[in-house]
Amino acid sequence: SRIKLGDVTPHNIKQLKRLNQVIFPVNYNDKFCKDVLEVAKPVCFDDIAVGANPKRLYIMTLGCLAPYQRQGIGTNLLLELQALNHVLNICEKDGTFDNIYLKFGSEIIETKKNYSKRIQPADAHLLQKNLKVPSGQNADVQKTDN
Amino acid sequence: MPNVQLPPKESNLFKRILKCYEQKQYKNGLKFCKMILSNPKFAEHGGWHVYGLLQRSDKKYDEAIKCYRNALKLDKDNLQILRDLSLLQIQMRDLEGYRETRYQLLQLRPTQRASWIGYAIAYHLLKDYDMALKLLEEFRQTQQVPPNKMDYEYSELILYQNQVMREADLFQESLEHIETYEKQICDKLLVEEIKGEILLKLGRLKEASEVFKNLIDRNAENWCYYEGLEKALQISTLEERLQIYEEISKQHPRAITPRRLPLTLVPGERFRELMDKFLRVNFSKGCPPLFTTLKSLYYNTEKVSIIQELVTNYEASLKTCDFFSPHENGEKEPPTTLLWVQYFLAQHFDKLGQYSLALDYINAAIASTPTLIELFYVKAKIYKHIGNLKEAAKWMDEAQSLDTADRFINSKCAKYMLRANMIKEAEEMCSKFTREGTSAMENLNEMQCMWFQTECISAYQRLGKYGDALKKCHEVERHFFEITDDQFDFHTYCMRKMTLRAYVDLLRLEDILRRHAFYFKAARSAIEIYLKLYDNPLTNESKQQEMNSENVSAKELKKMLSKQRRAQKKAKLEEERKHAERERQQKNQKKKRDEEEEEASGFKEELIPEKLERVENPLEEAVKFLIPLKNLVADNIDTHLLAFEIYFRKGKFLLMLQSVKRAFAINSNNPWLHECLIRFSKSVSNHSNLPDIVSKVLSQEMQKIFVNKDLESFNEDFLKRNATSLQHLLSGAKMMYFLDKSRQEKAIALATRLDETVNDKNVKTLIKVSEALLDGSFGNCSSQYEEYRMACHNLLPFTSAFLPAVNEIDSPSVALNHTANYDVLANEI
């Protein structure tokens, strides 16, 4: 496969910022990017950074540039996370609610109305994935910095 | 060394000399040496030898040789002195002397292998191949290396021996030699290459073809092997050649060369077929240098339009369905294919000068994949070609910011900043990779980073900062001096390590060192600057004289004058204070300097910009840079034209003649040469007091060039002959004005032509014309300049040089669509 996972370093952090700027409708600030250095993994297609996933128990961002979607890149990113419990908020946008998370075994726990102040539709689903054996690793739900 | 005891006084002195040598305090050492040697009684006590060593360390090689010869007069068979002398001789390329000395060494120490090798090399360099080979064979026979053992030094000896045979055109012997010893040669690839080369020379074509086929099997990307194979098979028709490439691609499906070479050879429809295949494979795979590998085909307009048709069709199709053309099936192309297609098209249209279109394509690529550094790199390049250097630097900065661990893109960014005259920024950019603790400029000089220094030279030149530019020119010159000097240690080292081929290559490289482009750039700029400084020397007076008191009212004038007086008084006090301070410091400095001078052997004078640009005799300095160019780069017409400019100002008619003759032989239609010829001829006719013989020679030679024509007709002919070339029209127009100032209007009209018949209306040439309108070549013509600028701006709307003066500061806002995509990256909520 031509898809590989790369590392984020202080040297190429701007590529991650660029991805976030372009893919996500929400602007993440610089502190986020600093924190991300520890865990983020950009996905490369033929050595071009096209997708990114700051890996955390709470998934803050997981995305892929539009032309490169539906190539299995998101799947690759989530494969990295399979071993971890993860939790995230996802906003439904123009019906593009991808069931990729459901495919990996997450469940919709609840739906928060007016979750986002800035984007429409403002509702968000909270998804969570737990391993069969519960462990103390279930993360707290962390708010995004909107 | 001495075998008679020195009396205590001299003995102590001698010890002190040795101490000086160790501590590199050469001047002191030399002083003491002279003291001993002045007393003839003690001259024989190794004094001359030590004196020689000191001179050598001080880089006074000629002096050192003299000392050694003196020492030898007194002590004929002193091995150490002979060795030292031989090193100096080869350093100075005194080949005859070197040979003599090595002969003496051989006689004294026939068992030492260096004696044989050194002696053989001397003959080789003197091109006496027979002697060299005899010696090498004698020596080889003494080396007892068992036939199955691989010994690197023996291998190098064999290869060196073989090289000498080939240089002597002894091809049969060389082949037999290599076949005899090939098992003991480490460099197996070289053995095959040599065999191939010799078999061709001996006409044994069948065997040669076998060798080259094997070489291609080892490495299918080496163009030389294909050349060799074609010679061996005596390929004459195109079909036969294509057949070979076809076979080889089958055997090596992933090799690029056998698919690339045919593209240069085939015409028309066949080309389309092959190119289609070639492009598809490479776009699918993702090959960033694809355009670069095809660039050399772009002289052929038919092929260019075929490429354009193919690739634009791919792009249109890939945007709608994921295939190269609409009615295909099979595996879909990944999204990167479209990306590389757009990337290619941007470079394609950039090469063709269609900059708007090029920007469209690169922006489309950036919109889809804003993380790819190559895209911003190409975008910067497009702006460079457009002539908007600030914008180009900005995009190159963007590129480097995406991967700050990549030194290549960092250097490229620094270079683009220098092109935009952003010198401080460029230095800062480089400092991200240079050593901590020193300034980037210093470190880059230490590292002999000449690409950076030559770009700085040009930037300073454009900014009119001649002192800074000259400093860098001298720094580059010093690097060449050092590189030449540094070969000294290799004379012993290579002999010891038996890396003889590399050693001879080094000597030959050093012989032509200043032929390198970096030297040429530095020398050319230095000469141009010295010529400017000769024409317009810098004075020490302040610019306050520029006040034009006519246009200022009496009251204002009084105010200004009193202000000036106050400033002058302040300056005077400051001056006096500085003077006192200086005197105090000088005392300390002198002491320090004297110490320092002792320490550093090649102590070099500090390069101070203000001093360099106020040098007394700029033409002499220019000549120093010129000499190596005349010796080593005589095939470049600019060498001779620069020479002419110098001799013109020195009034050296015969040298002027020599220069134009040499230039004329290279390209008689060169625009700059044309200007030189006319100025030369005018100058000759203005100088009626030349000695007879000189006049005779001049008129005789110039007859050959001008052929009875008067200068006006000569110029008219030149203009007629080059009516479609703006470069030539410019020169002809300048000369029209030069010969007759009343024809100013006509001359300017000629130079500012922009109609369709003129071919080279490109950024570079148009800028040249507008600069000429400003620099007095056409007298006063500010209104015509403004008209021209506007006309050029219409033709090339993005080029900074033609933008109206107001917008000069924030040029980014002018270019049309490039801002749009940058906004795409910002968030729109």
From TrEMBL, chain A:
Gene Ontology molecular functions: protein N-terminal-methionine acetyltransferase activity
Gene Ontology cellular component list: NatA complex
Keyword Hydrolase listed: no
Entries under InterPro entries matching the protein: Acyl_CoA_acyltransferase (IPR016181), N-term/lysine_N-AcTrnsfr (IPR051556)
Domain of life: Eukaryota
GO BP terms in the entry: mitotic sister chromatid cohesion
Catalytic activity: N-terminal L-methionyl-L-lysyl-[protein] + acetyl-CoA = N-terminal N(alpha)-acetyl-L-methionyl-L-lysyl-[protein] + CoA + H(+); N-terminal L-methionyl-L-threonyl-[protein] + acetyl-CoA = N-terminal N(alpha)-acetyl-L-methionyl-L-threonyl-[protein] + CoA + H(+); N-terminal L-methionyl-L-valyl-[protein] + acetyl-CoA = N-terminal N(alpha)-acetyl-L-methionyl-L-valyl-[protein] + CoA + H(+); N-terminal L-methionyl-L-leucyl-[protein] + acetyl-CoA = N-terminal N(alpha)-acetyl-L-methionyl-L-leucyl-[protein] + CoA + H(+)
Principal subcellular localization: cytoplasm
Subcellular locations according to the entry: Cytoplasm
Entry EC no(s): 2.3.1.258
Keyword terms, alphabetized: Acyltransferase, Cytoplasm, Transferase
Assembly with partners or alone: Component of the N-terminal acetyltransferase E (NatE) complex at least composed of NAA10, NAA15 and NAA50. Interacts with NAA10. Interacts with NAA15. Predominantly interacts with NAA15 in the N-terminal acetyltransferase A complex (NatA complex); the interactions reduce the acetylation activity of the NatA complex. Component of the N-terminal acetyltransferase E (NatE)/HYPK complex at least composed of NAA10, NAA15, NAA50 and HYPK. Within the complex interacts with NAA15. Its capacity to interact with the NatA complex is reduced by HYPK. Interacts with NAA35.
Family affiliation: Belongs to the acetyltransferase family. GNAT subfamily.
This protein's name: N-alpha-acetyltransferase 50
UniProtKB/TrEMBL annotation, chain B:
Biased composition (Basic and acidic residues): 571-586
GO cellular component, one term: NatA complex
Protein's organism: Aotus nancymaae (Ma's night monkey)
Highest taxon in the source lineage: Eukaryota
Name of the featured protein: N-alpha-acetyltransferase 16, NatA auxiliary subunit
Gene Ontology MF terms: ribosome binding
Gene name, Swiss-Prot/TrEMBL: NAA16
Region (Disordered): 568-603
Gene3D superfamilies, sorted: 1.25.40.1010, 1.25.40.1040
TPR repeat windows: 45-78
Keywords: Repeat, TPR repeat
SUPFAM superfamilies membership: TPR-like (SSF48452)
